From TrEMBL:
Cross-referenced NCBIfam families: YgiT_finger
Species of origin: Microcystis aeruginosa NIES-44
InterPro entries cross-referenced by the UniProt entry: Znf_MqsA-type
Higher taxonomy: Bacteria, Bacillati, Cyanobacteriota, Cyanophyceae, Oscillatoriophycideae
Name of this protein: Type II toxin-antitoxin system MqsA family antitoxin
Annotated CDD domains: MqsA
Length: 74
C-alpha cells in the first residue's frame, strides 16, 4: 500500500507501540500489528485491530487507571 501521508513510501507488516491519552489516563499498547510506511514511519491499523485497541483503552479508563501498559494479544 502507498503511504497516504508522505506519498512516497510503501508499507510493510510489523508491530508498533500505540500510546493513547484521555483525561488523566495514559494507555500504552505494545506489539500491536500494523502496516508501517518504510519512508516516513506512519502506521496503519486494520479496522479490527483498531476496535480492539480502543476497547482496551476504554476498559483502562473505566477502571480508573492513570497509566496502563498492555502487551497486545489478538
Amino acid at each position: 500500500m502507498e503511504c497516504v501521508i508522505c506519498k512516497h513510501g510503501t508499507t510493510r507488516s510489523s508491530f508498533v507501540t500505540v500510546t493513547l491519552e484521555r483525561d488523566n489516563c495514559i494507555v500504552i499498547l505494545k506489539q500491536v500489528p500494523a502496516d508501517i510506511c518504510q519512508n516516513c514511519g506512519e502506521y496503519y491499523l486494520s479496522e479490527s485491530v483498531t476496535a480492539e485497541v480502543l476497547q482496551k483503552a476504554e476498559d483502562a479508563v473505566n477502571k480508573g487507571a492513570e497509566v496502563e501498559i498492555i502487551r497486545y494479544v489478538a
